[in-house]
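Example record

One chain of 353 residues, shown exactly as stored in the release files.
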Amino acid sequence: MTQATDITDLVNGTLSKYGRNFITDAMSTLQNYTAAERLMNKKRLTFDSGTDYKFNILTTADGNARAIGFFEVDDLDQVDGSAQGTIPWRFLETGCHYDVKQLSVNDGPERIFNFVKEKEYQMWQGFYDLVEQYFWDGPASDSDTKVPFGLLNYWLDYSASTGFNGGNHANWSSGPAGLSISTYSRWSHYTARYDAVSDADLVRTMRKAFALTNFKGIPNKPIKGYDDGVGHNFGIYTTYDTLYQLEELLGTKNDNVKNELAKYDGMTVFRRTPVEYVAYLEKNHATSDPVIMLDWSDIKCAALRKEWMRQTPYQVASNQHDVRQRFVNCSMNFAMHNRRKHTLIAKSDPLSD
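Predicted structure tokens for this chain:
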């Protein structure tokens, strides 16, 4: 006779096998997972240990370089020019469970396999929904000690003024990563406001932002930067409303469309960088229609070593001898190492949406 423990062993033994099972996914309310696809992979991960994640920045050069003549006296000085950003760990958890009575042991392993995989699919769907939300938004205030640091509620600060005006976020007076722009003025990111998707308004603003935020640094740096060896990896993200207007604007620049409708849909490229529609921004920030320009070489998902996607096998639940449960734990946070490489352009403050 098949015992409950036999079922648990069978399920644990088939966790990584997908076989020939199929299912239609109608769970998600988002059409894409732009942030999750970028961040939840080896290229964006950086592992660390300790009580928090720290990174170093240089803010000031010295004044020792000069032109000299014969027999001049040396004159060297030192200046304090370094600072350290600090990001606390955030802890995410998900899991799934089943009751052994829900499984038909007479139908063999394939039936068990299908049902368990359905529960796991639901679990991962909810997890990626959460990651997408946390990356684009993040914690609503500094009293939130659980949610990871996202863009619009933490790393990027809206300003209607054009230039490097992204300062200390309204909800984080000490500045992102504990670095205040009142002390470190070069810690500001680029900002601007736009009213219309036109050459004279949004496109012109994007051109200027792209040029002014493309910091490359000096050649032959004696200390490696966080993006060294990665290369600039730009991305431009916005709502569908803004993207389709850019597509229409692109169409007006070329009369050779013949009989093809929507010829330039999905083909909008700015400075050789595709402009992408982010489903989460469309759903949650359609009023401000933000245009977010990122250099992904500077953005990491900082993970606590040995605690990234730590998974448990199915085990007996406490006080429920017929229930089997498993968990996934993830200790991490999102890190932006050089804010001035990034841009937030919007019609209004996204926090007011």
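Notes: Confidence is low (pLDDT under 50) at residues 16-21.
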